[in-house]
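Reviewer has doubts. Consider these tokens.
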Amino acid sequence: MVPSVFPAYARVLPPTYDPDGERRHRWSEIAVHTGVPLTAEIRFDDLVAGADRWGRPSDGGLDAQETEVLAGILSSFTGTPEEAYFCLWEGFGLEETDAWRDRPMRVRTPDRGYHLLTGPVAAAPVLPTPLEWRCASLWWPADRTWLVATEIDGYLTYVGGSPAAIAAVLATPALDAVAVTPSTPLDPSYG
């Protein structure tokens, strides 16, 4: 998901939503209620101990609120905050407008096709996705000092970067995140 080329990594834990979508819950809030610590190996099902009251995280990305926080932090850890790249999964079904039709390049990874957009890091939470809880699957600054990645069929987001950048992600009270390494199981929520 995130190449093992960075000196430090974090896993960002997305909020959950009640089935009606009215209430969001942070993993740290759930951990206080269940007494289960947040660790690199934590699985959501273990955190909630089978209780339905917490809802489920949404597959495919952070919501705009977490994305905005993450973009704000990571902007300080690049020399190119005004030049970044965003891969939006083709399966999102983005509406094609006249401005859109000739612009985005398409890129492929072994399992996915993406629209490649460019813009400032600050644009991450306002990209043209049809659902507010969808962010770009992959995004990084032009100087490649960090990378953010979320698997479409998973709900955890990974960040690779400098030790200082990852420490800032881990320290912000506005995100739930845990330190991981390249050898940490990729997405234990599906294991």
Summary: The mean pLDDT is 85. The first strand starts at residue 8 and ends at 13. The chain is about 20% helix and 25% strand.
